[in-house]
Write a structure and sequence with these properties.
The protein has about 300 residues and is mainly beta. The chain is built from two helices and 29 strands. Strand 3 (about 25-30) and strand 4 form a beta hairpin.
Length: about 300
């Protein structure tokens, strides 16, 4: 039986999608960029998230756990770019001068619709960005829909629209920054990525525009002592295109409409791993790699689906 709840707990609003027959539920936090903060399957939470609202406010900039990445992903070199002949400098959060992870990661989304029947539970959340962040004066509408289905499948669809009456086109990239935790150390987890092309980064983690042949995780293997902060170009037509598992749980990435890049990062504690779907490369506003342009009235959907199962 599927059902949806929206309630206040731990200091913030939580929208929960529940499949009681399978023992799975997903918790989404509207006020924190509509992020997925928990996914429980048979008592196992596979998302390394936040304990409550205060924890989020205290730690969000430490690792951007589960953050929504929009309208740019990863790094924007020196926080600057040019668009349609004008220069802009983004003033949000920066490390060593480079803006990081977009501007919607703490945006207050509103729950606009919930649904539940015998096949699924879903929630849609909306945020209307009005161009208020210095350096990105392009209003757009963003609607995120989470849909939980049988067998631990969850789809995350991001719908972005440049309003018909907008004054100009807008540059946009989209992504997610979830950290997955399977229990124990990442050293003992199996990882497979359908890619043998890794983006070459410079010392500032900005793509050079070149790719390095790297089939380390294709086919998959144990992560072992590897340290990851790397971006991969996915092979087309593969599903699942990424698999992460241990002897407790398995996570498969099934679809990646408009998400051709996958960024992976292992934090120092090595108890979780960030697997980030990206529509464009880091610094895409400058290098153009994967950059989407939306003219007034145009729209786009970015979609990813995971299948999460207990061993």
């Amino acid at each position: 039986m599927f059902r949806t709840t929206v309630e206040t707990k731990n200091g913030w609003q939580v929208a929960t999608l529940i499949d009681s027959a399978a023992g799975t539920h997903a918790e989404i936090i509207p006020s924190a960029g509509a992020m997925l903060n928990c996914f429980l399957i048979q008592g196992i939470n596979v998302i390394d998230g936040y304990a409550d609202r205060e924890d989020f406010l205290r730690r969000v900039h430490d690792g951007f756990w589960s953050a929504k990445l929009s309208p740019f992903v990863c790094r924007l070199h020196q926080s600057t770019y040019s668009w349609e002949g004008r220069g802009y400098t983004v003033s949000k959060f920066a490390i060593q001068g480079s803006a990081l992870h977009g501007i919607l990661y703490d945006a207050p989304f509103d729950v606009v619709e919930t649904r539940a029947d015998e096949t699924h539970a879903s929630v849609s959340l909306r945020y209307q960005y009005d161009g208020q962040t210095p350096g990105y004066p392009f209003p757009f509408n963003c609607t995120i829909t989470y849909t939980l289905r049988a067998n631990g499948r969850i789809e995350i669809r991001t719908h972005v629209t440049n309003p018909a009456g907008a004054a100009s086109s807008l540059p946009i990239c989209d992504g997610w920054h979830p950290y997955f935790s399977l229990g124990g150390s990442v050293d003992n987890w199996f990882l497979e990525i359908c890619s043998d092309q890794m983006m070459e980064y410079d010392q500032d983690l900005i793509p050079t525009g070149r790719y390095i042949t790297n089939g380390t995780y294709y086919p998959g293997r144990l992560i072992g002592a590897d340290r990851l902060d790397n971006g991969f170009l996915l092979r087309e037509g593969h599903s699942p295109f990424c698999t992460l598992k241990n002897d407790r749980v398995c996570i498969e990435f099934l679809s990646h409409r408009h998400y051709p890049f996958l960024q992976l990062y292992i934090p120092e504690h090595r108890q979780s791993i960030a697997i980030e779907n990206l529509s464009g490369a880091p610094d895409a506003f400058n290098n153009g790699i994967g950059l989407t342009t939306l003219n007034p009235g145009e729209k786009i959907d970015f979609v990813v689906e995971w299948r999460i199962s207990a061993a």
